[in-house]
Amino acid sequence: MKQKSxxxxxxxxxxxxxxxxxxxxxxxxxxxxxxxxxxxLSSTPTFMEKQVVDEDTLxxxxxxxxxxxxxLMAPVLLTDQKIKSILAGPGGEEDATxxxxxxxxxxxxxxxxxxxxxxxxKEGWLLGxxxxxxxxxxxxxxxVIVPYESDLQVVDDTLTAYRHLGDAMLGTVINRVPGHKLxxxxxxxxxxxxxxxxxxFAILPRQRxxxxxxxxxxxxxxxxxVICAHDHLNELVEHLMVGAMGxxxxxxxxxxxxxxxxxxxxxxxxxxxxxxxxxxxxxILTGNxxxxxxxxxxAEEAGVPIIITKYDTMTAVDIIESFFGKTRFHQERKxxxxxxxxxxxxxxxxxxRAISP
Amino acid sequence: MLGSLFSPDSVAVIGASxxxxxxxxxxxxxxxxxxxKGPVYPVNPAAxxxxxxxxxxxxxxxxxxxxxxxxxxxxxxxxxxxxxxARRGVKAVVVISxxxxxxxxxxxxxxxxxxRIASENNMAxxxxxxxxxxxTRTPLNASFAGAMPLKGNISLMSQSGALCTAxxxxxxxxxxxxxxxxxxxxxxxxxxxxFLDYWSNDPDTKVVLAYLEGISDGGKFMKAARTxxxxxxxxxxxxxxxxxGSKAVSSHTGSLxxxxxxxxxxxxxxxxxxxxxxxxxxxxxxxxxxxPLPGNDQIAVVTNxxxxxxxxxxxxxxxxxxxxxxxxxxxxxxxxxxxxxxxxINPVDVLGDALAERYxxxxxxxxxxxxxxxxxxxxxPQIMTQVExxxxxxxxxxxxxxxxxxxxxxxxxxxxxxIRILNDNRVPNYAIPERAVISLKAMVxxxxxxxxxxxxxxxxxxxRKPIKEVFDGARERGQLEIGETGAQKVLEACGIPTPASRLxxxxxxxxxxxxxxxxxxxxxxxxxxxLHKTDIGGVKTGVTGSQEVxxxxxxxxxxxxxYMPDVEIWGCLVQKQVEGGTETILGMNRDPQFGPLIMFGLxxxxxxxxxxxxxRIAPLSRRDARQMIEEIRSSRLxxxxxxxxxxxxxxxxxxxxxxxxxxxxxxxxxxxxxxxLVVFPEGQGVTGLDMRMxxxxx
Lengths: 357, 698
Fold this sequence. Notes:
CATH topology of the largest domain in chain A: Rossmann fold
Radius of gyration of chain A: 23 Å
Strand order of the largest sheet of chain B: 9-8-11-10-12-13-14
Number of strands of chain B: 30
Structural class of chain A: alpha/beta
Shape of chain B: flat
Strand content of chain B: 15-25%
Strand content of chain A: 15-25%
CATH class of the largest domain in chain A: Alpha Beta
Helix content of chain A: 40-55%
Oligomer: heterodimer
Helix content of chain B: 25-40%
CATH class of the domain at 455-497 and 578-698 in chain B: Alpha Beta
Distance between the termini of chain B: 37 Å
CATH architecture of the domain at 455-497 and 578-698 in chain B: 2-Layer Sandwich
CATH topology of the domain at 455-497 and 578-698 in chain B: D-amino Acid Aminotransferase, Chain A, domain 1
Largest sheet of chain A: 6 strands, parallel
Number of helices of chain B: 24
CATH superfamily of the domain at 455-497 and 578-698 in chain B: ATP-grasp fold, B domain
Number of domains of chain A: 2
Number of helices of chain A: 15
CATH superfamily of the largest domain in chain A: P-loop containing nucleotide triphosphate hydrolases
């Protein structure tokens, strides 16, 4: 069987590329296919355990138990050092070779290889490795994820992508469509796009849980200390609420949202307990103040981690909001949820037909 | 179970110490010194003898039956000791040791573990982290309080151990005697409910005093208190009622203090007398334990001082009591026996130069008057005043007669001797008339409480299925707040009428429905994200034609999108416009301690600006519902005033009862608001408008 590849890219960052890659790879692996994954250009590598790696690649490699070496799966890491050396020039041509030979090596013996693009169609031009260039280099078709922001933007972004990619564009997946807009997108927008020769493989509804942040992510973002319920750090937080009122109003306020993180002062035991009485996944205490042991005991009992941060409430809110909804996909609950969504909304047969030679 | 706690046959003291000044020494000494009659077994592997008693290395080496064990070893070893006690068949334990839930999770786990061991072995467990307990009858002083209280008929429980010792110390001056003293500590197993149940049948307890910061189980407490207060008075201080106070309670107990309104309603419904301060507690306790309850709420005042007499009169009226109307016979008798200048009308003024004899004449006349429920005797020390003789007259009348008599001997050094006589003869004395009146008020309330017929909860059957469907639907969408469309379905299922309405997705649908039900109609934006529709201009009233319906529909959608571009819009709710009637508000907020707190009041400015609302804890009786309607200050507007028709009070009462049933049947409803329940004139019912609720995730 000839190996099939898809290059998955998007019109903006945090559009759901890793999610789609993971879910598709899991689906086809379960069907008995020999699958592979590659991120030709990693624009946001991180420093982990004494080496620079691409986090998504690391995650997918472990998730799918892929045998390929990491430096083959993510051959080019765009570190500050690298950007500087390219700007100072000359050089950089070897990266294209690295990707090309890597891809050839990796795709040997594979039935399906998914390649994940950078943050957006705008990325990679510095190295000559932007999505259109990569698809030409590797002769792969591109599936573009367009996340919904407004009726107009969905159409414009899709057409812009088509303009960039031309015939290399396999089609699109429209993601994160609010419930009340689904009908509109299905009945008006999708047919319009199809008429212009772009296949719409899926229209995926927006689901809060997919944009949730884990307690651990919040803690990493804040740089605070977790003082209890350490085994609940993978719980997902969907809302953020600030407790800065009288205790009665706090209870009324906290009852309105489930699966939330509550930020309050370390010196507000009443608010802390009110939060623990309602559906709370995490307590964030500002001002570097440890709470009363009675409350730590209660939180441990309820399985609610308490994070102590040195920031004041306003700063902590700003920090958390800056990454809320832009979090990684690396939680089992999110993956299974996304898989369910895909099974309900994606036309897999059409996708398979589209990549058949 | 509690019998062995208060009156054990034998006591083991685990952690007894030879060293004076140590807790283990102090408690053992208290047990020995109080005159406890049974065997006492100090347990300490390092000692052979303490305070002349043979000391045992462990429980097993005692070899005799042990009723009660008092434990004060380091926290880490306490669970094992409790376990040993259970194995040895000990019937009750008092854990004085601290270091449990107040220290964090490990402590909480240890505390729960020992409560489990105790309960599984049918063993009573008081504490941990408490001062211990005292029973003056047994006698037993298994505490580290500084002294043994006087013998008497008051029982006290306190969530603050330190307050116990302060109250104990203060009680000597007032000559107040106690039956038992309990420091509740962390309430791992035994809590306020267990003690109320026990004291309810304890012949030595006539009055119970309680200092509470939080209640372990509000529902159980109300049930126990209801039964208890039918027989005996329960006076409680609830601390932590202000914002700052509740914060302090949270750090002291690790629980929410509960709302002030919920406590007020719960205490009122359960007949608990509320004291604002320790002074109140003493004032009320001394009259309730020493004097009979007044026959009625009419108070007579005898005084040798005009001013204090008038102050007493004001206080009586302010407290909602009545100044007694003396019978003709009494007034004639007083006129005949007292000097001409004396006032024979209540307050009875025996004049500043009155000797004891004049007090005797007046008192006897008032005691014989059947109109009089209670008497306050006021005395100020003039040069000729016979303080001690007068005190003796009052004491002798109090002793012989069944009428309530409280004294108010005002002053300090010159009345002291008289007060001593009064205290020795069970006549409570108050420094000022106002404080005597506060006590009388408590007594009258208790009297009414004991006479009140047993209440019957009104039960109404509400279908579960349609309501469950609304809740499940919301949860599926990840929502805990239920807006008007859903809430209306719930209200209808529960039998409260709502106007004809339908959720219309398009302007065409809206026009069609409006024409079906007839104009005028109201349009309201329907979105799960918008709860306060009026705040964003999401409501249009008085819509009278098809074009206006179309325009309003578009306008509301536009306004909503401008307010929140991301919002999910279902369409508009088209509703028959309700005209006439009086707007009331009916709501519920689930209190963390007592559960469903129902609120009722007149709508609009009455609730917004005047906070004229009444509260009760559900489930309600028909009488509760009626009292809520009558209790608000603006209730006269409902009963018809100045030509306004009387509203349909029965329908209102019915709606309150239905909501009470709804929130009782569905504990997942944590908040509910019908913020306009329109009540029409008599016979025309009510209609619920503008409602919303909040449910829990499970």
